[in-house]
Structure formats: structure tokens, C-alpha cells
Amino acid sequence: xxxxxxxxxxxxxxxxxxxxxxxxxxxxxxxxxxxxxxxxxxxxxxxxxxxxxxxxxxxxxxxxxxxxxxxxxxxxxxxxxxxxxxxxxxxxxxxxxxxxxxxxxxxxxxx
Length: 111
What we know:
This protein is α+β, with helices and mostly antiparallel strands. The chain is built from 2 helices and 4 strands, in the order ββαββα.
């Protein structure tokens, strides 16, 4: 636990796979394997190269992905995260942030 005793998000051996291809013979693709992390209150960073799974990881934490293919554990203050965790969490996507910068460039502010 952190100093305040609350707000500690931990991830233990997280794995995530998807099935793709035709229904007759689907294939499984593993997107995340063995990811573990601890996030305290305040600013946290997830960094890595393109294609490393950062967005997939954040989408799982925010409850944006179907979790039936999820392995491992997500915990908030040492308690397993319930399925409606997305009702109390939020994630600002890369697309929205890029759009805001684009709009700020296209629509100058009058002095």
C-alpha cells in the first residue's frame, strides 16, 4: 500500500489474447503476456516502442476490451477489480489528444 493507504492499482502477470480468422478455424494471437506493474496516486508513465502493447494495456485497465481472454489479475488496493471498474475510471485516448492539437493549430486564438 502507499502512504495514504488507498489508490494503489496493481497488475499481476496480465495476459490478453484474441481470436481472429474465419469461424471454422480461428487462430489465437497473444497481445500481452506476463505484464506486471504497480501504479500509485499521481502521475504514472507507460513507455515503450510502437507495437509494444501500451494502448491494449491501457484499454484493458479502462475496461474497454472484452476480458474473457484475460489472464492474471487486476487489483485496486489489494482487492480484485470488478467488471464495472470502467464506471469509476477514465482514459483519454491518443486520438482525442491529437485532434485537440490539430484543432488548436487550425483555429488560432485572437489576441
